[in-house]
Design a protein that fits this description.
single chain; alpha+beta; 8-stranded mixed β-sheet
């Protein structure tokens, strides 16, 4: 990205002055190297989002931002409920894609002798890959119950424990879901995909806490150096993609009728108060519940796999948080409390200490922010901050962020070479697709450590722990 077009506010904050059709300025977070490496398309997309009706305060890009569909991945934007819009492109195709982390109560030394058997058991238990299907088949009636109930429905069906729900965003169930707003085609695509990882950057990973940065927050989260964790990264599978596809098409065709001029067709949106906007919100919330239920079922499968290899392990849930959503939230803007619809696309909710939506055990330290890295580097646990609530609607990064396209990665790496290289470093990888492994090669991503550092330096969230991979099931 051309830094000459940006106004530097600090080492990790850059502004795009409001100009032309922009209704608000743009704000990009990241150190100089991260921003330089961002595609110029990120600049263009941040500006385009800033032109949308009803946008409040600024159009934001997190430190892991890269080019996306309409909104940049890593984009955050909030809209006024009366004159603002909801954008399917601002949520993304994988609705409520997110990260869930479980603790094991075990240390690296206890797990290491059994890690090969463990990753094989996890691979056998959790279907992964393009078009993967699971052992859960939903009838039309059960589908609607799942879309309305989310992880709460899954627990009621025997997948997990009631205490899990307190550690899930929205307590495992998104209010306002409307299963009737989800098309028969979307439901058909999902009927055999519950409890599956899917493909792309989704994964199931066994990790070790390699470093602690904040002992107080780590204690509140139940983390100690050397602990072994399990992290699940996936979303709403075919149902979410179908919802996005259908509503984007309808929003494009009806934009002019709503008096909306789109700088980019991929920014398709609808007024929040319109029939189309309300219908999309109902379908999207159903998609959120689908993702929450999916991760809940996978949690159950992971616990079963662990019990076969390491009997007696408990695996309580640390937290589950999504990074492709639009939610109604209360935020202070210029000293006034306002209800806003906050889009986070490839950005994680990061509420600070004392927020009523942060589970009680974490109230004094802030919400856990789970940041996925790559299967060859690291992931991070961050904590939401009061400062982050002020500057970016309680939002932070979601991962390392891609540094090159999947096509470019496939040309540069071979999947088998990636697997062998990681095995030589003590990281076991299982995947049904060597092409998928090549696309997700660690070198195809930004430096996740730099992303986490920039997030902390900007005040968005603070570092709590760095996690290194031991074994990974890739979709």
């Amino acid at each position: 990205m051309d830094l000459g077009r940006l106004t530097r506010v600090s080492d990790v904050e850059w502004h795009i002055p409001q100009a032309g059709p922009m209704r608000v300025p743009g704000v990009i977070f990241g150190g100089q190297d991260l921003v330089l490496d961002m595609d110029d398309k990120v600049f263009e997309q941040v500006v385009n989002v800033a032109t949308l009706p009803g946008i409040v305060k600024a159009s934001f890009a997190m430190p892991d931002a890269h080019w996306g569909y309409g909104f940049p991945i890593g984009g955050v934007a909030a809209f006024d409920p009366d004159d603002g819009v909801v954008s399917a492109g601002g949520v993304g195709f994988d609705i409520s894609c997110g990260v869930r982390t479980l603790t094991t109560g075990l240390t690296h030394d206890q797990v290491a002798p059994r890690v090969k058997a463990l990753v094989d058991a996890l691979c056998a238990a959790v279907p992964a890959g393009l078009g993967s299907t699971g052992r859960v088949h939903l009838s039309p009636k059960e589908m609607d119950r799942m879309l309305a109930g989310g992880a709460s429905w899954a627990v009621g069906e025997g997948y997990g424990r009631p205490e899990d729900l307190a550690r899930i965003e929205e307590h495992g169930r998104m209010e306002g879901a409307e299963p009737d707003a989800v098309s028969p085609r979307a439901k058909q695509r999902q009927q055999d995909e519950m409890g599956t990882l899917g493909s792309g950057n989704h994964y199931l990973e066994v990790q070790e806490v390699a470093q602690l940065y904040d002992e107080t927050a780590a204690k509140a989260y139940g983390l100690a150096k050397g602990d072994v964790l399990v992290t699940i990264h996936c979303g709403s599978r075919g149902l979410g993609h179908q919802i996005g596809t259908e509503f984007l098409r309808e929003m494009v065709t009806r934009a002019a009728g709503h008096g909306i001029t789109l700088p980019d067709r991929e920014l398709a949106c609808a007024p929040l108060r319109s029939e189309l906007g309300r219908r999309y919100l109902g379908a999207m919330r159903a998609g959120i519940n689908c993702a929450l239920a999916n991760r809940q079922i996978i949690t159950h499968l992971v616990r079963e796999a662990f019990s076969r290899v390491l009997p007696g392990v408990d695996l309580p849930l640390l937290y589950d948080v999504s990074h492709n959503t639009c939610k109604a939230e209360a935020h202070d803007v210029d000293g006034v409390r306002r209800r806003l619809f906050v889009h986070r696309k490839g950005a994680t909710r990061a509420f600070g200490p004392g927020h009523p939506d942060v589970p009680e055990p974490f109230g004094a330290v802030g919400q856990p922010v789970l940041v996925g890295g790559t299967m060859g580097t690291a992931s991070y646990v961050l904590a939401g901050t009061a400062r982050g609530m002020e500057i970016a609607f309680g939002s932070a990064c979601h991962g390392a962020g891609r540094a090159m396209s999947r096509h470019a990665a496939k040309k540069r790496w071979r999947g088998r070479e990636v697997v062998d290289d990681l095995a030589a470093r003590g990281i076991l990888v299982r995947s049904p697709s060597m092409r998928g492994v090549a696309e997700e090669a660690p070198g195809a991503y930004k430096d996740v450590g730099a992303v986490a550092n920039a997030s902390e330096a900007a005040g968005l969230a603070r570092r709590v722990a760095r996690l290194k991979p031991l074994a990974c099931v890739k979709g």
